[in-house]
Amino acid sequence: EAGVAQSPRYKIIEKRQSVAFWCNPISGHATLYWYQQILGQGPKLLIQFQNNGVVDDSQLPKDRFSAERLKGVDSTLKIQPAKLEDSAVYLCASSLEGTGSYEQYFGPGTRLTVT
Amino acid sequence: AQKVTQAQTEISVVEKEDVTLDCVYETRDTTYYLFWYKQPPSGELVFLIRRNSFDEQNEISGRYSWNFQKSTSSFNFTITASQVVDSAVYFCALRPGGGADGLTFGKGTHLIIQP
């Protein structure tokens, strides 16, 4: 079974530029999550989708971050414009359903460096 | 609000020693789930265990064991006869039983196993 796919793996941009990350969850997984992991910290949830609807985006900085999952499968996370403090690894995860009994499977992440 | 505390930032032991990673959590939910994840140098989060709030039985899986104590809100992880391959950052995480269920992670414990 293929795991969660993410691209690109690495991205370097200058502040005020835009960037987009892509995630393809495990086939059949209804729930998709985006997390931000700053160096030396645990991942922090940015947004949770159930199929193509948003369940929780309370920690998403909506003035600069946006995410979509139009067909209920793959998802895109965008930052516009980027700030230095956005440098982090962006992790995508998926689970079979959005209930606590299911574990989340994580992708390899996209490491973003903002200069 | 939910919170996970991993007070040990870094632990270093010699191979074959036993080591325990501490995790203390805070939640107002009566139903919740606790997780441990391993993050090796490659960066991908690897699921290790899930425990629900109604099951306080300790669990053993090979060299790994977990001690869940609701009375002290702790979910500690022990590695017996540690090996160099166990070197990684270990995260404890908490998830509510219903509704939006993104994981709340601790800051992680960096475990170094010296040969």
Describe the structure in your own words.
The complex is a heterodimer of chains A (115) and B (115). In chain A, strands 2, 4, 5, 6, 9, 10 and 11 form a seven-stranded mixed beta sheet that branches. Chain A is 0% helix and 48% strand. Chain A contains no helices and eleven strands. Chain A is globular. The model of chain A has no long low-confidence stretch (mean pLDDT 93). Chain A has 115 residues and is mainly β. By secondary structure, chain B is mainly β. In chain B, strands 2, 5, 6, 10, 11 and 12 form a six-stranded mixed beta sheet that branches. Chain B has a four-stranded antiparallel beta sheet with strand order 3-9-8-7, with no helix packed on it. A two-stranded antiparallel ribbon of chain B has the order 1-4. Chain B is globular and about 45 Å long. Chains A and B meet through β5, β9 and β10 of A and β5, β6, β10 and β11 of B.
Which terms would index this structure?
heterodimer; A: 115 residues; mainly beta; 7-stranded mixed beta sheet; 11 strands; 0% helix; 48% strand; B: 115 residues; 6-stranded mixed beta sheet; 53% strand
